[in-house]
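Board work, copied verbatim: Mycobactin phenyloxazoline synthetase
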Amino acid sequence: MTPNPVGPSATATGPDAPSTTTGTAGTAAEAGAIGAAGNLDPDGLRRTVAEVLGIDPERLGEDDNLVAAGVDSVKVMTISAHLRRHRVRVSFARMIEEPTLLAWWRLVEEGRAAS
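↓ predict structure ↓
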C-alpha cells in the first residue's frame, strides 16, 4: 500500500509553494483547501471541509458530526484560515462546540453580519 502523499506531513516548500494566510508554506492539503471553494457559500464550505479531510464532499451531510468524520483541532484551524481569506472570522471554540456544516455556516453568516 502506497502512503497518501497529501496529509499532515506533506509540506509544500520552495518558491512555487502555495501561500497560506500567514504567508508561509503549509501542507498541500491546506493549500488545496484554501483555494478549493472559490466563492464562500454553503457548498464551498462543504468542499473545503471535504478537501481538508481528503474525502468526497457528497459524503458530508449538513448535520453530520465533523469530529466523527475526522476533523480535529488542526483541521479546524485550517478551515478557519480559509474563512479568514474570505474576511470572515469565526470562533474556534464555537466551531468545536457544534461541529456540523450547518452550525459552521451559521457562524459564517454571523461573522459576515458583524463585519
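The first helix runs from residue 28 to 36.
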